[in-house]
Amino acid sequence: MSLYHEAAQILDTARKGGGSFKTIVFSKKGWKSDSKTLFALTTETAKWSEILSEVIVKSELLNNQKQITPKLALLLTHDLLLSKNGIALPAKHGLALAITRHKARLQAELKKAGLHRGLATIKALRIHVNGRTTKPSHPRWIRVNALRTFLAEQLESTFAEYKRVDDLAAVVNAGSDERLIYVDQHIPNLIAVPADCVLTTSTAYKEGMLLLQDKASCFPAYLLDPVSAGGDVIDACAAPGNKTTHLAAILASTGESSNYTELPKIIACEKDSTRSSVLARMIKVAGADRTVSVKHHQDFFKLQPDAKEFKNVTSLLLDPSCSGSGIIGRDEGGVIVHVPNTLGPKQNAPSRGKKRKRAAVSVSAKVEPANDTEAEEALPELEDDKSKLQSRLESLSEFQLRMLRHAMDFPAAKRITYSTCSIYAQENEHVVIRALKSDVAVERGWRIMKREEQVDGMRRWHRRGDRGAVAEVLDVADPTDIGFDADQIADACVRCVKGDEDGTMGFFVAGFVRDDLHGSGRSSNSQVIANGHAEKDDGAVEEEEEEWNGFNDGH
Which domain of life is it from (predicted)? Predict the structure, then answer.
């Protein structure tokens, strides 16, 4: 029977950051199993996965039944122990026989798991599990694609039956049967609807008129304001393409009132072959193929800034790999999918005085994809993992800094936006200050884009950078004068906090500008950057893969 195998596939996609269960299940056609059944099974199993992983590991099920994978074990154990109707398989089915012969041991371990939490009955344990799964604290953000349609047109068609409200909180707190819509006050053509609303089956979504994109993810392209620079644009880390198509929509919308005889082009770089194909597909569906030129299999670091083809590049959008610590689940309110490992208690026993490893591995089930959704990483939780986290952040920040300095080396560049979906200052304010102090920034005249210089919506955004984080690396005695104090730089940076009243993911973005395109020669430092990026430095962080789940963007 395909139910459990398809449900295992959904869990696998979710744990890799490929989207919410609702999006994964209902946006795909061709399931052999009933979609509603798949959705119910996967969401309930995810809610119970921490406890079930513990039960499975302690029962040594995976050691004794090699044909059962960890995700199948979760699903089968859930139905065996917790479903009213039991396992949805014939009694003599191989999987049914494999799991039911361990029923007594699994029940005993479930009982122990409850007692360990101070819960004596399954009913009490169920209340405990359901109580931890809260309603999403954020809406479903939707960008109306100006390349295909207009906001007014969508309000009168796709959202004709929705009631418009002026308070985002009303959308967040809406009941499951309420159809409310909020038009954002910061980003043009951005709307919010309740998280329960499914739009992936609508004609507007399928035809690229509507793109699921977190509000924070819209900040980089909007802040870049590429029309003001008057030239071509490079999107350095483009796939799957939400920010790229947003750039194209901005150019098309504002270009109509400009003096352009033809719109500038957007050069979209993607080094992975599979993701290059995904990028090209999205650009076509979104109607951006006349503006965007996809550089398939192209590593941004291997672009030569002085090359003739980049002589008109005046704007660059950088959204590099990061820790993903700002990404949160949406439809399931941040549900974590815990997957049991394949070793039982005996194999996991500590040796030589080392700390015992956790029995289960957990990875977040994301709602929206990404890079425009980047897969969130399972951040270290044990004391001895803190050093690993710090080491990883150091490697990532070096990678991010090199990308920024490389972007600053393009001769005609006037504007750059740098963004991450990270909550850590090491990847955000610290990278900004280090970039401003770099040789290439000083030589070419780069500075921070002041708040008063930003486009209206970003200027009005209330959450700014962390002054303390800026001050940590801004040495007032440093002979390199970057021209601004900690307060000014923090005020120039934009932050979003995940899960707060603004309804966004955790995010950071900063802009860089040049007032005068002076200094055409390269410093020795920038020469190393231009030529050295083709080679892998010791400890360098390769740009990581992101999961694709349709035309939406958790990041």
Answer: Eukaryota
Residue 545 to residue 268: CA distance in whole angstroms: 16
Tokens standing for 79? 């139905």
> Phi and psi dihedrals of 64, rounded to 5?
-95, -20
User: What is the per-residue DSSP string for 42-105?
Assistant: HHHHHHHHHHHHHHHHHHTHHHH-TTS-HHHHHHHHHHHHH-TT--SS-TTSHHHHHHHTTHHH
Report helix, strand or coil for 183: strand
Q: Which of 460, 454, 465, 462 is nearest to 424 (CA)?
A: 465
Query: Judging by beta carbons within 10 Å of its beta carbon (0-12, 13-18, 19+), is residue 401 exposed, middle or buried?
Result: buried
Same domain, 262 and 410: yes
User: Using CA of residue 531, residue 536, residue 540, residue 542, what is the dihedral sign?
Assistant: positive
Residue 371 belongs to a domain: no
Degrees to nearest 5, angle at CA 254 with 253 and 260: 115
- For 142-181, the pLDDT digits (tens) are 999 999 999 999 999 999 999 999 999 999 988 878 999 9
Counting beta carbons within 10 angstroms of the beta carbon of residue 460, is it exposed (0 to 12), middle (13 to 18) or buried (19 or more)? exposed
Say if CB 525 and CB 439 are below 8 A apart: yes
Which residue's structure tokens are 């002026």? 166
CA distance 378 to 140: 23
Does 35 lie in the same domain as 106? yes
What pTM did the predictor assign? 0.69
Torsion of CA 322, 328, 334, 339, to 10 degrees: -20
- CA distances in angstroms from 268 to 280, 311, 354, listed in the order given: 9, 16, 47
Q: How many CA atoms lie within 13 A of 371 on its CB side?
A: 29
Residues 207, 162: one domain? yes
For β-strands 210-213 and 552-553, DSSP reports them as parallel
Which residues are 446's β-sheet partners? 514
Tell me the per-residue pLDDT of 376-432, one tens digit each, with 9 for 90 and over. Answer: 223 333 334 578 888 999 999 999 999 999 999 999 999 999 999 999 999 999 999
d(CA 328, CA 482): 35
- Say if residue 193 is in the same domain as residue 225: no
Does the residue 107 lie in any domain? yes
Cβ(526)–Cβ(405) below 8 Å: yes
Q: Looking at the structure, do residues 70 and 8 belong to the same domain, yes or no?
A: yes
Task: Find the length of the chain.
Answer: 555
